[in-house]
Specification:
With 450 residues, the chain is mainly β. The chain is built from 4 helices and 29 strands. Strands 1, 2, 23, 24, 25, 26, 27, 28 and 29 form a 9-stranded mixed sheet that branches. It has a 4-stranded antiparallel sheet with strand order 3-4-5-6. A hairpin with a 3-residue loop joins strand 12 and strand 13. It starts with a helix and ends with a strand. About 6% of the residues have low confidence.
C-alpha cells in the first residue's frame, strides 16, 4: 500500500473531527443549585449587585420596591453557608424610608478596589417631588464599603431626586461614572480628589416621561481601560463618549448600532431602536463584548476602529430554538481572561411577546469567544425541586462556584414564611387567587464550564 494512503486517511480523519465539533450544545440535565436564605421578605429583585471579594465572602444586594424599606446588603460565607445582613443602606445613610422615598436598589456592580467595595444607590419606586405621604427622593449616593472595617462611607448624592441606575468604575484612574434615572444625567466621582462633576442630561433622544421605562437610560456603561473613555448608547442608535483627556461629553462620529438584525422587538412593540443591556471589556478580544436588550444578540465592538460584529444569539436553548423573544439579562459576565461569556436568563410570562402560561426555569449559557461555541448547560433547579425563574445578578466565583441572585417560587402560603411574604408584598392580591409568591435569595451552583 502506498505510504500516501495512510496519510490521506489520517488527514481525512482530522478534518472529520474538526467539522464534527458542535457549534451549539444543549444539555438535557438540569443544574442543581443550593439556596442561601437571607430572610429579607420585602426584597423582590437584584440587578448586577453581587461579587465574591478577595476576602472570600460573597457580597450582594437584595432590592425592594417596598414604599418604606431600603435595599439591604448581605454577606455569604461559602465555607459555612451563613448569610449575614451587613447593611440597611438607607438607614446607615440616616434616611427614614417612611418619610422620604427610600433607597430601594443597588442597580450596579460592586467593584473591589483598595480594600473596599464601590457602588451606588438607586430608587425603587418614584414620584417627582414625593409620593403618597413620602417626601422627595433624596437622590442616589456614591458609596464605598470597607471590607476589613465593615463600614459604609457616604461619598455624596449624585443629583437630587435622581437614582444612580448605571454605574461603572475605572480602577486605574480612580473614577466612578454613573447615569441617573429618570433624567439620564451623566456624572462622575473622582476618588482621589473627592470631587463630583455633572454633565447634565446626556442620552440623546431621551426625555423623562413619568411612566415605566423599558430602556431609555442605559443600564450598563462601557469604560475603556486603554484611555479611560466611557461610552453609552443613545435612543437614536448612536453612541456617546465621555472623553477622559478632554473631560467632555461628545457624540462618537460615524458609529451606530442601527443594524437590521439588532432591531428585533417584542410583538406589538413599535420601538425598534437597538441598544445594549449589558456590556463588558474583554481582555481576550481587546474590545467590548455585550448583549442586546432585545433578541439577546452577543456582539463585540471596538470604539477606536468602529468595528461592530454581531457574533451569535445567546438566548437560552428553548428560546433560541423556537425563535421566541425575551428581554436581555444583566446576569452577563466574562471569565477572568475575557474569553468566555457566562449568561443567565429565562422566559417569564409577564413580558410582552412571551405566550407561555407558566414561567420557564432560568438557564445558564456560556459562549467561548475564541472557539465561537454556544453551550446551554440546562435549566437551574434547587435541591428542593423548585426552579428559579428570574435572575439579573451573576458572579463567577473564585472557588469553582457560580453565584446567582434569583426570584424563586414559593407555594407554602400557610407557613409562617409564606404568610410574611404575602403580608409584606401581596396584601392587595385576593387570597383565593394567590397560588404562589416568590422569594429572592442567593443560589449557589457548581460551575459546569470550569
Amino acid at each position: 500500500m502506498p505510504k500516501i494512503f495512510p496519510i490521506f486517511i489520517l488527514g481525512m480523519l482530522l478534518v472529520a473531527i474538526v467539522f464534527a465539533q458542535p457549534g451549539a450544545v444543549y444539555a438535557d440535565s438540569p443544574l442543581i443549585g443550593k439556596m442561601a436564605e437571607a430572610e429579607f421578605y420585602e426584597g423582590d429583585s437584584n440587578y448586577h449587585a453581587i461579587i465574591q471579594a478577595s476576602d472570600g465572602f460573597v457580597y450582594y444586594a437584595i432590592c425592594t420596591h417596598n414604599r418604606d424599606r431600603h435595599v439591604n446588603l448581605f454577606r455569604y460565607d461559602p465555607k459555612t453557608g451563613e448569610v449575614k445582613t451587613i447593611a440597611d443602606i438607607g438607614k446607615l445613610l440616616g434616611e427614614d424610608g417612611t418619610k422620604n422615598i427610600p433607597q430601594g436598589k443597588v442597580h450596579c456592580d460592586l467593584f473591589e478596589h483598595e480594600g473596599k467595595l464601590w457602588f451606588g444607590s438607586h430608587v425603587g419606586l418614584y414620584g417627582r417631588g414625593g409620593l403618597d405621604g413620602h417626601g422627595p427622593y433624596p437622590g442616589g449616593h456614591f458609596l464605598s464599603w470597607d471590607l476589613k472595617a465593615g463600614k459604609l462611607t457616604d461619598l455624596g448624592v449624585g443629583t437630587p431626586e435622581e437614582g444612580l441606575v448605571a454605574l461603572s468604575m475605572d480602577k486605574a484612574r480612580g473614577r466612578l461614572y454613573a447615569l441617573t434615572w429618570p433624567s439620564a444625567v451623566f456624572i462622575y466621582y473622582d476618588i482621589k480628589s473627592g470631587s463630583r462633576k455633572s454633565f447634565g442630561p446626556s442620552v440623546v433622544g431621551h426625555s423623562y416621561v413619568n411612566t415605566v421605562e423599558t430602556g431609555g437610560v442605559p443600564r450598563s456603561l462601557a469604560v475603556d481601560p486603554r484611555d479611560g473613555n466611557v461610552y453609552w448608547f443613545n435612543m437614536d442608535e448612536t453612541v456617546s463618549r465621555y472623553n477622559f483627556s478632554g473631560d467632555t461629553v461628545e457624540l462618537v462620529k460615524d458609529q451606530s448600532f442601527a443594524r437590521p438584525i439588532l432591531k428585533v422587538r417584542e410583538r406589538g412593540n413599535p420601538d425598534d431602536n437597538a441598544n445594549w443591556r449589558s456590556i463588558r471589556w474583554s481582555e481576550a478580544l481587546g474590545r467590548f463584548v455585550g448583549v442586546t436588550f432585545y433578541g439577546e444578540y452577543l456582539f463585540s465592538w471596538d470604539p477606536k476602529s468602529g468595528e461592530l460584529e454581531v457574533i451569535d444569539r445567546i438566548a437560552m436553548g428553548p428560546s433560541r430554538k423556537s425563535g421566541e423573544l425575551m428581554r436581555g439579562s444583566l446576569a452577563f459576565e466574562l471569565s477572568p481572561d475575557g474569553g468566555t461569556v457566562y449568561y443567565v436568563n429565562g422566559a417569564s410570562p409577564g413580558f410582552e411577546g412571551n405566550r407561555k402560561t407558566a414561567p420557564d426555569p432560568i438557564h445558564l449559557v456560556t459562549y467561548d469567544l475564541r472557539q465561537r461555541r454556544y453551550t446551554d448547560h440546562g435549566g437551574i433547579r434547587l435541591e428542593d425541586g423548585r426552579s428559579p425563574d428570574y435572575c439579573q445578578g451573576l458572579e463567577i466565583g473564585r472557588n469553582g462556584n457560580l453565584y446567582l441572585v434569583c426570584n424563586i417560587p414559593f407555594t407554602d402560603l400557610k407557613s409562617e414564611k409564606g404568610r410574611r411574604i404575602r403580608e409584606l408584598r401581596y396584601a392587595a392580591a385576593p387570597a383565593e387567587n394567590l397560588k404562589q409568591v416568590y422569594e429572592v435569595n442567593l443560589v449557589v451552583v457548581k460551575n459546569p464550564a470550569r
